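To fix ideas, we quote verbatim one protein's residues and fold tokens.
>
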Amino acid sequence: MKNLLTRWNGLLAVVFILFLGMMQTALAADPLVDAAWVKANIGKPGVAFVDIQPTADYLRGHITGAVNTDFGKSGWREERADKVPEMLPEKLDKLTAHIGSLGIDNNTHVVLIAPGGSNLDMGWATRIYWTFKVLGHDNVSILNGGMNAWAKDKTNPIQTGMTKAEPKVFTVHLRKDLIATVEDVKAANAKGVLLVDSRPEDQFAGINRNPKATESGTLAGAKNLPSGWTTENGGGMFRSKALLEQLYKVAGVPTSGEQITFCNTGHLASIGWFVSSELMGNKKVKLYDGSMVEWTMTKAGPVEHKVKLQ
């Protein structure tokens, strides 16, 4: 009898583990969805379409039922006490309250809708996507091509005005393993972990720089894979995995192994992180939130110049 109970308890443990695995799989959404998927899921319970167009553009037309968040004004990033700009908030209560106001709780499938005009605005979506992952929410997707892809088909419904959602409670389960700090970058450099610069080549080389950075150049030893390469003609549609693999090879960036992506303020770097982690499947990639603006403002370490202009 004792042996039978032991076997039965073991069987229950296996079933429970399998159940948890199935639940985790169910909560991990595809990173990209297309317009056809969106059309088939409009109005379905548990799916929240979050439009990240500027509010004026959103009011003129958005996917039916989509709510609006302002990437620059709704608390997704903030200036740190030492004046380093556009960082993930240190205190997350206001951001989580905003997320709840969008009708999102921990069981909601969030679908992010960018304008889709360029890789730059798709970077708004990838940055918010990364933020949801950092907050412990895996059930998030991006509409590939954004509103541009949606509007191409004139039969797709478009709604005007403001849509409000019934507020919900969103709880944070912070995952710091996705965030690289200054100290992480220094340690990575010492260990030979690859640093990947997602900025345009002219900024990587030190020819031009972001006005918020205090010095031109890149992190020592970094390789350059511009975020503009990862979308078709620098637009809103991400390239296929097969094409991305070719571009990674050209850039000399492996598709596996420890890496840290960076840019100026963690915007373009979120595209690099998204493509490497979510589309290429490399789960050993972190995003350096402060990037070159923090590195140069705080004089964190040396900067490498490919070109020195007199």
Remarks:
- The two ends are 86 Å apart (CA to CA).
- The longest strand covers residues 47-51.
- The chain has eleven helices and 14 strands.
- The chain has a mean pLDDT of 92.
